[in-house]
Amino acid sequence: MKLVINVFIFFFVLTLSAQNKATYTYSIKGTDTLKLDVYTPENIKKTDTLPVLLWMHGGGFAVGHRDYIDDENLVKYAAKEQNYIGISISYRLLRKGTTTGFGCDCTKDEKLETFKQAAIDYMDAAKYVVEHANELQIDTTKIIAGGSSAGAEGILNAVFMREYFVDNAEAYSNVKFAGAFSCAGAIVDASYMTPENAVPTVLYHGTKDQLVPYGNAPHHYCAPTKDGYIMLDGSKIIADKLEEFETSFYFNIVKEARHEISRIPYEELDIVFNFFERTVINDEVVQTKIIKTKK
């Protein structure tokens, strides 16, 4: 099995090797120069405007990078195989070098501030993309917000809770998300989800995720006595809300799996993008739950 997977990944990387790439600075905040890498299909015409996958990497708000190989290969795939503009962003890693990290010793207030600033960074990247849409050849009505683990938390909070986290929401009035793609993500409070901000969403999650809850549970399953005790709403709660709103979703549930489901599901990307083709491009309503058991 390992040999097959390695061959698949090698082939996957090989097919994505030729790309048009450009790097832009979207914001400078203190000592952080925040950039985004834009991958464009080689055959794009000057008159084309394409949908975009705007991707936020994971890493517990402490590690990771926009051009980490898995994240880079995803946005390359979006450009080469799906005729999207694929964009991977940097953002401030506010827990990097801290003594408490992002676990149970990191206070609730620090966690909320980290979630807030990550959502703001993501919104700033999206705002830059919208303001430079002509140059980047982007269809601003078809922006798919995507991320894994911490990045998934960042994008879900930006999509569904911008009014809570962003003080000057009017500055982002031109930023509208058409869909979301979350690998093992959660939001702070699903009650902020409404029929107005609900968008077609792809969710991957393991039912035994020990870091980001699958349902409504404490972040990192911290005890109530710990400083880092904060409840989050995971993929199950988000899917339940979308079902209630009659909004499209694709929910891939892996029973008994832990946080490894935060990895990008390369082997199913055709399914993911087909979902967005049907729901975002063609405006169909599709609600799908796939239930698997970890092998």
Which features would summarize this protein structure in a list?
single chain, 295 residues, alpha/beta, Rossmann fold, disordered N terminus
Question: Can you tell me the number of structural domains?
Answer: 1
CATH topology: Rossmann fold
Q: Portion of residues in helices?
A: 25-40%
* Poorly predicted regions: 1-18
How are the strands ordered across the major sheet?
1-2-4-3-5-6-8-11-12
Q: What portion of the residues fall into strands of 2 or more residues?
A: 25-35%
Quaternary structure annotation: single chain
**The biggest beta sheet, please?**
9 strands, mixed
Backbone shape? globular
The H-and-E topology, N to C, reads as HEEEHEHHEHHEEEEEHEHE
CATH 2nd-level architecture: 3-Layer(aba) Sandwich
CATH C-level label: Alpha Beta
Average residue pLDDT: 94
Number of helices: 8
Through-space gap between termini: 12 Å
CATH superfamily: Alpha/Beta hydrolase fold, catalytic domain
Radius of gyration: 18 Å
Structural class computed from helices and strand pairing: alpha/beta
* DSSP E strands, number: 12
Can you offer a commentary on this structure?
The structure is a single chain. With 295 residues, this protein is an alpha/beta fold. The protein has one domain (22-293): Alpha/Beta hydrolase fold, catalytic domain (Rossmann fold, 3-Layer(aba) Sandwich). The protein is built from 8 helices and 12 strands. It has helices at 2-15, 69-82, 108-131, 133-136, 150-160, 162-165, 235-244, 269-281, and strands spanning 20-29, 32-40, 50-56, 85-89, 138-148, 179-183, 186-187, 201-206, 216-218, 231-234, 249-255, 287-293. Strands 1-2-4-3-5-6-8-11-12 form a 9-stranded mixed sheet, sandwiched between helices. Strands 7-10-9 form a 3-stranded antiparallel sheet. Helix 2 links the parallel strand 3 (50-56) and strand 4. The radius of gyration is 18 Å and the shape is globular. Mean pLDDT is 94; it is low at 1-18.
